[in-house]
Amino acid sequence: MIAVVAETKDGVVRKASLEALAEAKRLAGEAGGSVAAILLGAAGAGEAARLAQHGADRVVHVEGAALSAYAPEAYAEAVKSAVAILKPDVLFFSATAQGKDLAPRVAARLRVGLAADCVGFAWENGALTAKRPIYAGKAFAKVAWNAARPMIASIRPNTFTPLAPDASRNAAIEPIALADVPVRARVTGHEKSAGETLDLTEANIIVSGGRAMQGPENFEILRKLCAVLGATLGASRAAVDAGWIDHSYQVGQTGKVVNPTLYFAVGISGAIQHIAGMSSSRTIVAINKDKDAPIFKMATYGVVGDLYQVVPALTAELARVLKD
């Protein structure tokens, strides 16, 4: 059995978890196994059924007051309780901010191995192997687990495509009550950024600005492009360190690792720290006035020019084309 920890946001299962379910379904099909989903805390009506429609054969829903908001100790204990019931051979997490925090805690409690930020899986002679980027995305490592079970892995968002929902699929839904768990810190509230679309880690299109933006007011140029494309705004470390934009927008080794279908690097030179966070983007468009900027070496398309002329012209043309 392969189990997937389904992460929710505002009571709705996140796309990254549905992607993990799709890969779990593929692997389970090849091995002749089944797929289970672990749902934690309060979830919207129908979310357990939605997990079934996207591939889960069984859903374990752990509920309790301790799970009202994310708390590492409580969530780790909840997953451990579900694992004790399901006894899966493989346990998947999404490599979101929450998943990166939770997966190693669960692995430590279960005393099993964890392969983090994986982008591929395969069965080799009956054993599961995982592919994960190393050296800031310059190479890939193939890793395997020892005999301890479950084998735990976190999956980079936007790596796999969720299955089309099948309304005819049903799954046994098993509720579990979690006793109160002592926690060292509790989330008391969330503050959302105004005007943004998807989280960077889940966005299909990202427009990022770098040092060449010269100030916070110039990010408005990129926001207009984002509005036309339905994209999410990002930034390089240089822009964040300069105080032009909040750290939550940072793409890179010390920011967020993203995997969009389309990535615009605007006024970004291409330092290795930034490349580490976006190198797996499927299509990269670089706009920079320096023709020797390192970003052009990995860009799918490159525009050598002044971003203050190129980006507004591109925004206007895309608005015209998409309107038609």
Summary tags:
324 residues; alpha/beta; Rossmann fold; 2 domains; 7-stranded parallel β-sheet; 5-stranded parallel β-sheet; 29% helix; globular
Give the assembly state of these chains: single chain
What is the arithmetic mean of pLDDT? 93
Compute the CA-based radius of gyration: 21 Å
Largest sheet: 7 strands, parallel
Q: How many strands appear in the DSSP assignment?
A: 17
The CATH architecture classification of the largest domain is: 3-Layer(aba) Sandwich
Helix content: 25-40%
Strand content: 25-35%
The number of distinct helices, counting runs of at least 4 residues, comes to: 8
Biggest sheet: strand arrangement: 7-11-6-1-4-5-12
Structural class: alpha/beta
Distance between the termini: 48 Å
CATH homologous superfamily designation of the largest domain: HUPs
Care to describe what's here?
- There is one protein chain.
- This protein has 324 residues and is an alpha/beta fold.
- It folds into two domains: 2-177, 3-Layer(aba) Sandwich (Rossmann fold), CATH 3.40.50.620; 200-323, 3-Layer(aba) Sandwich (Rossmann fold).
- It contains eight helices and 17 strands.
- The protein has helices at residues 15-31, 47-53, 72-86, 97-110, 219-229, 237-241, 272-278, 307-323; strands at 2-6, 8-9, 12-13, 35-40, 58-63, 90-94, 114-118, 120-124, 127-134, 139-144, 151-155, 172-177, 205-209, 232-235, 262-266, 283-288, 301-304.
- It has a seven-stranded parallel β-sheet with strand order 7-11-6-1-4-5-12, sandwiched between helices.
- Helix 3 crosses helix 4 (97-110) and helix 5 (219-229) runs parallel beside helix 8.
- The longest helix has 17 residues, at 15-31.
- It is globular and about 60 Å long.
- It starts with a strand and ends with a helix.
- The model has no long low-confidence stretch (mean pLDDT 93).
